[in-house]
Amino acid sequence: xxxxxxxxxxxxxxIALASAAANAFWQQHKVELRHQATAWQQLLVxxxxxxxxxxxxxxxxxxxxxxxxxxxxxxxxxxxSFAELIRGIVDxxxxxxxxxxxxxxxxxxxxxxxxxxxxxxxxxxxHDAVASFFGQEPRTVLPPERMVVVGAxxxxxxxxxxAAQ
Length: 165
Hints:
Layout: H1 10-29, H2 37-53, E1 59-64, E2 73-78, H3 79-103, H4 124-134, H5 144-159
Antiparallel strand pairs: 1-2
């Protein structure tokens, strides 16, 4: 089965974290960073770096500039607070899993193995939610970035018409 949410991806995690930092900045300085293209882009890059760091650290700090020359601005974030920020996004991805299972008349516990794909697979909150949903630890035979390609190849092979001889 194939299911997906074309509007859901790793950028959503970056945006959630960057938005939290922008909200905190607004409360302190009354400056809206989302309306400043350069500052917002720097904040998104910092959020992605923080997301990666939180894959192996319990806490990290976003460091970015608001473009006014104030110097670097910091926004501390913990793995736990990040998990809370992205909970809705993770739930949306599990709804996609549920839809794919429904197409085949399966339950999450019917699967013998679960493989994660994409860079967000490294996010502990994603890994833990998938493990809980499917009732088993996801396997990590290949790097998750390669699993996207492997999954597409397998799907293509299964759905392609037979080759002409």
